[in-house]
Amino acid sequence: MTTTIPSLTQDLRDFAAARDWAPFHSPKNLAAALSVEAAELLEHFQWLTEEQSRHLPQAKKDEVGAEAADVLLYLLQLCDKLDIDLLESARRKMLVNAEKYPVATARGSSQKHTAD
Amino acid sequence: MTTTIPSLTQDLRDFAAARDWAPFHSPKNLAAALSVEAAELLEHFQWLTEEQSRHLPQAKKDEVGAEAADVLLYLLQLCDKLDIDLLESARRKMLVNAEKYPVATARGSSQKHTAD
Amino acid sequence: MTTTIPSLTQDLRDFAAARDWAPFHSPKNLAAALSVEAAELLEHFQWLTEEQSRHLPQAKKDEVGAEAADVLLYLLQLCDKLDIDLLESARRKMLVNAEKYPVATARGSSQKHTAD
Amino acid sequence: MTTTIPSLTQDLRDFAAARDWAPFHSPKNLAAALSVEAAELLEHFQWLTEEQSRHLPQAKKDEVGAEAADVLLYLLQLCDKLDIDLLESARRKMLVNAEKYPVATARGSSQKHTAD
Fold first, then answer.
1. What is the ipTM of this complex?
2. Which chains share 3+ C-beta pairs under 8 angstroms with A?
């Protein structure tokens, strides 16, 4: 069976319900946990050069993949609690970004990112 | 057309390519940007009580949804650069978590989370 | 001998020099490391209630103290590399905050913090 | 008058008391705010190369200095609430680090940092 955002969301709901974790999973706490996981992911890169980060050995990629999974799992739980449709929000955000960073002016410039 | 993780990933690839952003988008930089966006999401919750965070007004939910989208968009770009299959990693991580936090012992305890 | 910000800064300089760490200690990398340490500190609190966070057992306080130290040590190294006078910046920031959050309007409101 | 860690701590105490901010300033919330400020600092560096980060223009240094101040101010408030002596913790942490990263083995290696 294919893993999708809706199937993961349902699995996470069942997982937390079976463990009575609802009291811990306030949106505030999930946002903090998400931020902590994102930092754990960053930790893998903090002393690497950009070039090294483009050529990770497979073992390191697997570790990064596990941290990326943690980020996604908390993000999905947060969105689920807040009735946010994450994929639809992402689609809308891409339209906003297309207006904010027109190809003509954003080309090759990191200035685009300043108001993210 | 339905928005999916693969379709978003392709859209992000096209978006960055049209703007020549590859030089900025090293995995190291994307990991930093991801972490910054996760913190911007957390900022919405930092002075709220947990209870308040469970009852956000719709306008605030929309803002949080836009930040959640930013987190996802950087996460997808990072995984794309590193050839990480995010959904598959998430599926595997849930199996790991099921072993790590058995229902019998993890029930109602936040101790489960200590070794995340 | 009393530990002060200037004495710690000098000790950190000597420590890094003895280990040839200058190549790793770009301001960019130090800023990432600082952010990672701040998240490790936050991790101690993520599943606690606010009330629990006000009454930490001593062992937990010691752990938090060690993380707080890590945050300070990276902050000092970052400021040293950029010739930023941290204490003077902090003094100036407090003057800015005093204007931004006048007692009359900021009293008892978390709104003060929105534009931090 | 010289600005010191103890004088800043006292000023922060007075500042928060005058505004009745004690209810917001639980250690949990202060830890979240600290982490958010550290990410705002990191944001200034996320698209820069390491080399660029070593040669910031003065205007950018001033902005970074203001963010560094925010980090320090929350760190001091957090430590104050928890009765943590930050400078003493930092001094102790440096002794721990001296044992953990002996000059002979840590020289020129970023491996030192892995267990931070």
1. 0.94
2. B, C, D
